[in-house]
Design a protein that fits this description.
25 helices, alpha/beta, Rossmann fold, 54% helix, single chain
Amino acid sequence: MASEIYNSFVKDANKVPFDPEHRRKLNFNISRYDQSVLRGKRQFSQLETAKQRAANLKHKTIENLDKYLIEFESNFIKKGGKVIWAQTSGDAVSEILKIMRRHEAKLVVKSKSMTTEEIDINQALAQHGIESIETDLGEYIVQLAGEKPYHIVTPAIHKSKEDVAKLFNEKFGMPIESTPVEITGFVRKMLREKFITADVGITGANFLIADTGSVCLTENEGNAMMTFSFPKVHIAIAGIEKLIPSIRDLDLLWPLLATHGTGQNITAYNSVISGPRQIGETDGPAEMYVIILDNGRSEILRHREQRSALWCIRCGACLNACPVYKNIGGYTYNTTYTGPIGSVITPHLRGMQDYKHLSFASTLCGKCTEVCPVKINLHELLQLNRKESVARGYISKDERFIQLGVNRILSSRKMMNFGKISFKNMLLNTFIKKMWGPRRVLPKLAPKNFNQLWEERRGEKSLGK
């Protein structure tokens, strides 16, 4: 299994970067993002202070997660909501299907949520004859194309407007020259009918607020607001890490998320939902459920260093900054969460043996750490994952042999100085070149090493030269 996943990754990683059209689309769209974020950051007079406050807040939350989870559950139940605890993705899907059967649901409208992608709820619903419609425009586009989200914030970032026009021509017979405005208008009209007739609405949650028992959603299209407002039943699915202590924390986190996610000062629609429709209210669902998902997050929590990855607010900034992601693209990772944050958490969520290679697919340039709004040391966590994978023995015999050999040589000055340079270069070409990669030039050792140059320098000084 592990070799199959790894081989697929290597195959795609060697193919995708050499597709010029793919590179053009991705680089163009990310460059637009970079310009927007640069403008958005100007709203902060002290950005680093804001980021440090956010990091402190998330650190406090994760270190006291048990307390805040219980507080959220208690306050949400007081408002008439129901909390379901799901240990695995299978548990979450099973509970959702129970709700569907109870309400004889046939149509589900769904707003953008990476957590629902993680549990693959659309496929599960389809297998039980339930139609599930993505209502975020980007998500709807990739759903029509039979694809998964390419990016955790902008699902269709890999497509051009011409690609989308062609897709809608094939699916709905729209003119091939349809503009983004025309396509958006078409989708808006079609989705309005779905919102009105849907039995259940499913959303994720950007944050869960402990002190008010509330679910927070932030978006730019209004589709999430209609997803939880129109249907009689609302199901919100959130990982255990989405907790924040207080509603007062939103004035810090929402602008940081908006700026680093899309470059906005704040996104267009921000909703705080505190349970189902109350007496005297005219809007909102009659029943509301929050499914709190573990699905491997406790494994990350178990690691004192790596648990800081749970601070993530899913802004996608690290993906857009990462030179590896910008070359191999989102689908090469073959995981729900891609880029640096995905490479940190996926080996723990899905298994270190199968996904350790993601932590090695990094230049360790530190750009991801630099742009993170909650100051996660992502490049250091990637190194810790690498160390753990080796300590647990998840390396090939060739890797182990070379590591032991290099360790022995570098630990001995006598061995480092032994032999001619030509012999050493020959050894490197024999044992290292293949692992170095076919597109990188293996460097040659210098005629003299530092030790030899140092000794010569000392000899010259003793002679008064």
